[in-house]
Amino acid sequence: MKFVNSIAVVSLLLGLMGTAYAEGGFERAKQFNEHFRAEQARLWNDDASDRNKQHVAHEQKKASKEGKEHADN
Question: Apex CA 43: angle with CA 38 and CA 49, to 5°?
């Protein structure tokens, strides 16, 4: 009988701990989602200045590659 009582007490304590940990879970999940989306927007923002920088870097790389080919010939 002691075994059954101890199992009942442990399950009651685990149930109470679960509700304590779950409190505010929706708000934390919502805040995490908003933070994640803001961070992704910051990292992957399709900014025109970034595209221009990439285009200039690509053109410089292309020009230096062509310059090396002409130097080899």
Answer: 115
What own/partner pairs with CB < 8 Å and gap ≥ 24 does 19-26 have? none
SS3 53: helix
d(CA 61, CA 68): 11
Q: What is the DSSP letter of 47?
A: -
Token code pair at residue 59: 């053109």
pLDDT digits (tens, 9 = 90+) for 33-72: 899 999 988 888 766 566 667 777 777 777 777 766 656 5
Amino acid letter at 33?
Answer: N
pTM for the full model? Answer: 0.37
What's the chain's length in residues?
Answer: 73
